[in-house]
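Z., the sequence and structure:
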Amino acid sequence: METKKTVFDYIKVLWKESFKEKNFKKGEVIFSNEEDVNFYVIVSWMVSILKTAWDTKKEVARVTSGSFLWEWIFYWKTFKDAEAVCEENTEILYISLDKLNEIEKKNPKGFFDFYKFVIIKLTNIRLTDTSAELAKIYKLTDILNRENYIWGEGFLNFLESIKSILEIDYITYIENHPFVDGVFYYKFSTLKDYEIKEKCSESINKDLTWFIKGWDIMFTNKTDNLFILPLKTPLKFKGFLILGNKEKNFNESLERILKNICLSFCSIIEQNQENNWKSLDIGNLI
């Protein structure tokens, strides 16, 4: 049976003409949000890929030995919109765009084989990720459309189902007060089996960012990885979903999945609020 080739098998063909070696220390930046004409291959250890959203850096991926960084160089895109940081002392191989162009002229078959390997590998990874995303979106949409989720046990079961599909540790729903905009309180959490109804501190406001570390949020530890989903309709700000993991990091895939169900989730909240507004004790909730 033929052994599958790795990126290093292809590099051997091009080695004398092309790739250079460089060692980075733990915490050192390989590249950042700037012009960079190099394509990188990780030889050893692990690298974190960070992107900035709403002035907050978020880790979107971790890559290890045999992975490559910035395939866009094959399309002459040299401005990198991410930051690569070494998790440990890391060995890297890199090649410049000019060198790739030289190889293409001198060894077109070797260059094409390497290019094809890079693109096919990345395409397979992304198709797998996309299929997984679509499957989760389908399951979540099915749950959202299946029945009405009334405040209480039904809504908690609803949150538990979402937690299970997304494979995360916990979910907390923070509600924007239905009558006093900007006043937030904890409503439900998969960590509790009852309706909480506890007012949030002033640090919970409409400016929370998508990706943050655990801090002043009920039931979270400072080391937890949190994903903050603002729940908005065209007319109203309904609150937040706080998705938490004790160890695992979140990535952009989760953001795309949740954006697909956000309005449906807001509709369920709206329905509950309309059904229960007469029984709410406004004074006690603010």
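The CA atoms of residues 156 and 192 lie 9 Å apart. The helical segments are 7-14, 97-106, 108-146, 153-166, 252-276, 282-285.

Let me know what you think.
H.
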